[in-house]
Design brief:
The complex is a heterotrimer of chains A (186), B (488) and C (587). Chain B is an alpha/beta fold and 488 residues long. Chain B has 20 helices and 14 strands. Helix content of chain B is 41%, strand content 14%. In chain B, the strands form four sheets. A five-stranded mixed sheet of chain B has the order 3-4-2-1-5. A five-stranded mixed sheet of chain B has the order 7-6-10-8-9. The longest helix of chain B is centred in the C-terminal third of the chain and has 18 residues. The mean pLDDT of chain B is 93. Chain C is of the alpha/beta class and 587 residues long. In chain C, β10 and β11 form a beta hairpin. The longest helix of chain C has 24 residues. The chains are: A alpha+beta (186), B alpha/beta (488), C alpha/beta (587).
């Protein structure tokens, strides 16, 4: 029975400003970068000729390496590509693919495209939230799972669709959520 | 009855050939069109063929493709670019992904033809990073084309050189708008800029740039091979060829279809789509994604083409087609699309940034049963202002889902506002779960499963749901084996 | 030429003319909010984002933004149809619906473009209400960011990036949360902000305002144990009148002095005096380096760069630390005045340094930061206690119930109130170097300069170059105003291709007359030109027009400092610079 349609939003996943509003300042996002990470990052920039026009490609690669884009990573990219740091941050916060929050070991993404929506994605999402006790855009305390919503992944025939890491689950019903999570227990 | 059949032009090779084997593409006349263009035709002749074919942009706007080629050709510059827009972002649309995964060479070939026409030696594919398989296959295809000399310097010994690079989107629907896409390719925030200047005059890095979407490109080699006349014989007077749709929602057969322009919605939904699932009643079909509108029963026999859809209050968009049945509340559907738009608005212009947020909030108020008739009139005004005043296509069309549902389902809006009822039973705030006394046997299943202890009643006694505690989760309804709980 | 009809009036315009400009030609003022055009300075902000300027163009599906839409031949435009007016009003309501409703206590009340627009459009209710965006307020030594009031006009972002090339502000986030902010929403004082204040100068609302020290000054004036001394920068007298409704370019030197006296300052002095002093120190430094160079010394350290602009000093400390030995070590006039007042003058009137409060009236916001620098303090006591802007002075005058218009003109006190025409023109681009040339010429050649007006050094071009004949030696001079223009000259120096002997740099477009603390120009660059002309008028009317001829400057050197660049002069009047380029902390 199709009874309730709560608002599905990915907004919580963006806007690191919201974190800062709560007094969670810059310094708390600070992480330590090892010299080898810095070198790797500089190599990535160099592989794009330190061209400012390649900023988005560089950010993709950087997120591929670190899993997310902490402030320090953005600082290095800003220096290497000679793009003001504020502009780098402006780009990072514009695109929903980029994140400043580390993802879990097994990132869970729930498609909330129209087809999945019509077929009950929000109930599946609720079930994940309940089981993991986290909200969208958050990571579990043990760093194992993180939860996010995706716009259409183009697998509407399998709606509703859930992605765990690279693996796709189709026609997911709320009662399948526990089984799915069990696959990643260890 | 050929009219009812699907005709595969853009999808001609999808699922037929191995996309990772260039030989299979060539065996089906692949790169024949490029050879013909380069060796037997002048750029003007190629453009003329495309113009005569009547091909219009498949990304949503429907601008005549040949004309776009011609304008870019006429822009004088030392460097020009061909850009393929593969940042498919409409929820429920996946035709571009299917083409890139199933027939990447068709796009590569067409981009090279475009380069020849406009005088560009460089192409860029702006593709969603969320499409790893499409990226992979495109990379393989590019490598194979280079190896065979179909990309690179001096193609077919004609002195024409062309190569293609990939650029990745990063999750911003607005980047489907061409100026935003260009800014994104330049490493900037994907904010649109006012047109003119159009990209065909000043685009990527300030140079003339021809931007077309994947499906548009996929049509071009066929037009060259089979002729403009063959192509323009398909379709309606002003919309030629076929259109790929991603059929989804409450319909029996979901998936990609490719039909001639002019096919009716009824044919698509009932003949190809196999009708509504579970024998439910058709209510509406949404085309054009968040920029489109909801069409109803009365539009079922409208031939689908660019102009008819606009006249009916929707649009072609990139080809998403979502079918709704009687269980879908149209106010909630409009709210769903607005939620998407609010999330995807770039924030540059005030009407889109703030207006869509307020539009969403008004719709939310309606679905909560808290709106007044004054809100409805404010809603209408706001829709018009956002459409009239927004900077780019995203804002200019974002109120379409609201306007079209206001037009076609005004009663549902009134129902929410005046009677505080959601006819489809979808709006949580407007419904309540109650026990049907005659059916209740007092098994206590509902009370035990209620997460908020909103149900009281002794064993073998009739139970009672306390409305002030109930969160309307539906657990009691799901658990009751005696049909003793109903939704009002 | 194209012919267009606007509200039934026909006008002929050149191709490329916007509807906005075409309408202005026939007396139709289409309202704008985000749009900004400082024509004389080549500064334009045209994101077409606010959509207040929309008009109806016949045959067009939607409404067109007048600022960004070019006229086409035969166009028929309606700027006040019911559709246009309703759209404009609704859009305004939307903007206001995401804006705090605290006009009564807002720093910008009465000067706010948004408030004025709401009035002009007759907004009496806001039909659309909902969630408002909230951000943390950020207070730096000079600038307050109250981002809740940002309307995304992007003017500050354009100023910070395109004009100043400082790059501290950028559009961040997307959609409803989109706002202009520094990286990671960090505080400005953690960023590379130069406090030039150009963002404040163009902000249409109170999203960016200056740190207000008005009440600190009032407290100081009320303290009977303190002698309160005030100095006024040259550019202030050419702009203060605007705050009282006078025509831009009206000189109010005498009234300003009278008002300050009435406010209760014990001594009203002139920063122009310190400007003359700056010329003595900086000019001597120039000649020393020049003579070294002429003697064949390859380490002569030329060109010399002026150092009187604190925004510019912040800029090179952050962005060009490798060039930090090139600018003159002379302090800015504000910071020369401080130690002279607190040592020489305090001594003269027999009080201790701690019992003197020095207040400066500046066209500038960077001055607020400058006077708080550690190197400008003695045992924690700053040489200059408070730096307040021209706007804050106007507020002070209003607070003290002074009828500015009916004040009798008054004169500065002596000795630190005496100045020359050379000191006056410090307030506009090219003025410092012209003042320096007047003195350096005479010192270098030993001849009397007959014609003191160097027209070739004046103007509004962003980068200017000129040469002055120093008795056979062709002195090559570069001038840049606006930090983006300065960057061009600095890149040349870095590349070793600079051909100049001396370069004047001012952070703000137009120089101090266009400073971040000046009355708001609301996008009218003719105001800046009028202020510059006013300063040249004051210079022309001065009896003495060369710094080294200022009798009190002469006396200061004779009785206190010795010679220019003497040990004592170095101790009190010179400074050193720091490498503030951002370091990544690796642990």
């Amino acid at each position: 029975m199709n009874c309730c349609i709560p608002t599905i939003s990915t907004r919580a996943t963006r806007s690191p400003l919201n974190n800062l509003n709560t007094g969670n300042t810059m310094s708390s996002i600070k992480i330590k970068l090892h010299q080898q990470d810095i070198d790797k990052l500089k190599e990535v920039c160099a592989s794009f000729n330190n061209d400012a026009g390649e900023l988005i490609n560089v950010l993709h690669k950087a997120q591929g390496i670190f899993g997310y884009l902490p402030a320090e990573v953005q600082e290095i990219i800003s220096k290497e590509l000679n793009v003001p740091l504020a502009k780098v941050y402006g780009v990072v916060t514009f695109y929903s693919f980029f994140t400043m929050i580390p993802k879990g070991k097994h990132p869970i993404s729930i498609c909330t495209g129209t087809a999945c929506y019509v077929r009950g994605a929000e109930k599946v999402l609720d079930e994940f939230k309940k089981n993991l006790n986290i909200k969208v855009g958050e990571t579990t305390a043990d760093g194992k799972f993180s939860l996010s919503c995706l716009r259409c992944v183009g697998a509407c025939g399998l709606a509703p669709v859930v992605l765990v890491g690279e693996k796709t689950y189709g026609r997911v019903a709320p009662d399948m959520v526990k089984e799915i999570l069990a696959e990643y227990k260890d | 009855m050929t009219k009812h059949k699907q005709i595969r032009i853009a999808l001609r090779n999808c699922g037929v050939i191995d996309p990772q084997a260039i030989g299979e593409y060539i065996a089906r006349d692949g790169y024949q069109a490029l050879a013909t263009c380069l060796t037997k035709m002048t750029p003007e002749e190629v453009i003329d063929q495309i113009k005569k074919s009547g091909l219009r942009g498949r990304g949503g706007g429907g601008f005549p493709t040949g004309l776009k080629f011609e304008i870019t050709r006429k822009s004088v510059s030392d460097q020009k670019y061909v850009v393929c827009n593969a940042d498919e972002g409409d929820p429920g649309a996946f035709m571009d992904r299917s083409i890139l995964e199933g027939d990447p060479h068709s796009v590569i070939e067409a981009m090279a033809i475009c380069g020849y026409c406009i005088g560009a030696d460089k192409g860029l594919v702006y593709i969603r990073a969320e499409y790893p398989l499409a990226i992979e296959r495109l990379k393989i295809a590019l490598e194979q084309a280079r190896e065979m000399g179909l990309l690179g310097k001096n193609i077919f010994n004609t002195g024409f050189s062309f190569d293609i690079e990939l650029r990745y989107g990063a999750g911003a629907f607005v980047c489907g708008e061409e100026t935003a896409l260009i800014h994104s390719m330049e490493g900037l925030r994907g904010e649109p800029t006012f047109k003119p200047p159009f990209p065909s005059v000043s685009g990527y890095l300030g140079k003339p740039t021809n931007v077309n979407n994947v499906e548009t490109f996929a049509n071009i080699p066929v037009i060259i091979n089979k002729g403009a006349g063959w192509f323009s014989a398909i379709g309606t007077e002003k919309s030629k060829g076929t259109k790929v749709f991603a059929l989804a929602g409450k319909i029996n057969n979901v998936g990609l279809i490719e039909v001639p322009m002019g096919t009716t919605l009824r044919e698509v939904i009932y003949e190809i789509g196999g009708g509504i699932r579970n024998g439910k009643k058709f209510k509406a079909v949404q085309t054009g994604g968040p920029s489109g509108g909801c069409l109803t029963e009365k539009h079922l026999d409208t031939p689908i083409d660019y102009d008819n859809l606009i006249a009916a209050g929707s649009m072609m968009g990139s080809g998403g087609m979502i079918v709704m049945d009687e269980d879908n509340c149209m106010v909630a559907v409009a709210k769903f699309y607005l939620d998407f738009t609010v999330d995807e608005s770039c924030g540059k212009c005030a009407p889109c940034r703030i207006g869509n947020k307020r539009l969403y909030e008004l719709l939310d108020k309606i679905t909560q049963g808290k709106a007044t008739m004054e809100d409805i009139s404010n809603l209408k005004n706001l829709c018009t202002v956002i459409r009239d005043a927004s900077l780019c296509g995203l804002g200019q069309t974002s109120s379409n889902p609201v306007l079209s549902t206001l037009d076609n389902f005004y009663d549902e809006y009134i129902g929410h506002v005046v009677d505080h009822k959601c006819a489809a039973g979808q709006c949580k705030a407007l419904m309540k779960y109650v026990v049907i006394d005659e059916n209740c046997v007092g098994c206590t299943a509902c009370a035990r499963n209620c997460p908020v202890n909103a149900i009281s009643g002794e064993k073998k006694q009739v139970h009672f749901i306390h409305q002030d505690i109930c969160i309307k989760c539906g657990a009691c309804y799901d658990r009751c084996k005696f049909n003793a709980i109903e939704i009002q | 030429m194209l012919k267009v009809t606007i509200d039934n009036k026909t006008v002929e315009v050149a191709p490329g003319t916007s509807i906005l400009d075409a309408a202005a030609k026939v007396g139709i003022q289409i309202p704008t909010l985000c749009y900004l055009n400082l024509h004389d300075l080549n500064i334009e902000n045209k994101p077409a984002g606010c959509r207040i300027c929309v008009v109806e163009v016949e045959g067009r599906r939607n409404l067109a933004p007048a600022c960004a839409t070019d006229c086409a031949d035969g166009m028929k435009i309606n700027t006040h149809s019911i559709r246009v007016l309703n759209t404009r009003k609704t859009v305004m309501e939307l903007i206001l619906s995401d804006h705090p409703f605290d006009c009564l206590v807002c720093a910008k009340s009465g000067k706010c473009d948004l408030q004025k627009m709401a009035q002009d459009l007759g907004i009496r209710e806001i039909r659309y209400q909902g969630e408002q965006s909230h951000y943390r307020e950020d207070t730096s030594p000079a600038i307050i960011r109250d981002v809740d009031k940002c309307i995304m006009c992007r003017r500050c972002e354009m100023m910070c990036n395109e004009v100043q090339t400082v790059g501290v502000l950028s559009g961040v986030n997307r959609g409803f949360e989109a706002v202009v902010a520094p990286a990671f929403e960090m505080n400005l004082d953690h960023s590379e902000c130069t406090y030039c204040g150009q963002c404040v100068a163009v902000c249409p609302t109170a999203a960016l305002t200056e740190v207000d020290h008005t009440y600190k000054v009032i407290e100081a004036l009320a303290d009977p144990t303190k002698v309160v001394v005030v100095q006024t920068a040259p550019a202030v007298r050419a702009a203060l009148g605007e705050e009282f409704g006078l025509e831009p370019g009206t000189l109010v030197t005498g009234k300003m002095v009278a008002a300050l006296r009435q406010l209760g300052f014990n001594y009203v002095f002139d920063t122009d005096f310190a400007a003359d002093l700056t010329i003595m120190e900086e000019g001597t430094e120039l000649l020393t380096r020049l003579n070294k160079y002429l003697a064949g010394d390859t380490n002569a350290n030329l060109p010399i760069l002026t150092s009187c602009c604190p925004g510019w000093v912040n800029f090179f400390e952050h962005h060009f630390p490798e060039l930090k030995d090139i600018p003159s070590t002379a302090r800015s006039p504000q910071q020369m005045f401080g130690p002279i007042a607190k040592n020489y003058f305090a001594d003269k009137i027999g009080i201790k340094r701690e019992d003197m409060i020095v207040v400066s009236i500046m066209p500038c916001l960077a001055k607020k930061y400058e006077c708080s620098r550690e190197e400008f303090k003695v045992n924690g006591d700053p040489d200059v206690n408070y730096s307040v802007s021209t706007r804050e002075l106007a507020n002070l005058i209003k607070l003290a119930n002074i009828d500015f218009h009916n004040l009798d003109e008054d004169d500065f006190d002596q000795p630190l109130g005496e100045s020359t025409g050379a000191g006056v023109i410090f307030g506009t681009t090219g003025g410092v170097i012209e003042a320096a040339v007047r003195t350096a010429y005479e010192v270098h050649t030993g001849k009397t300069l007959e014609k003191v007006d160097f027209e070739q050094l004046r103007g509004m071009e962003g980068v200017r170059s000129a040469s002055v004949d120093f008795n056979g030696l062709e002195l090559k001079i570069g001038i840049a105003h606006g930090l983006g223009n300065a960057r061009k000259l600095l890149e040349e120096i870095k590349a070793g291709t600079s051909q100049y002997h001396a370069i004047e740099i001012m952070a703000c477009p137009g120089g101090c007359i266009g400073g971040g603390g000046q009355p708001l120009h609301h996008g009218d660059s003719s105001i800046l030109k009028a202020r510059a002309q006013a300063l040249y008028r004051e210079d022309a009317g001065k009896a003495i027009r060369k710094s080294h001829e200022n009798p009190f400057i002469k006396e200061l050197y004779e009785k206190f400092l010795g010679k220019p660049n003497s040990h004592k002069a170095h101790e009190l009047l010179h400074t050193h610079y720091f490498d503030k380029s951002n370091q990544i902390t690796i642990e």
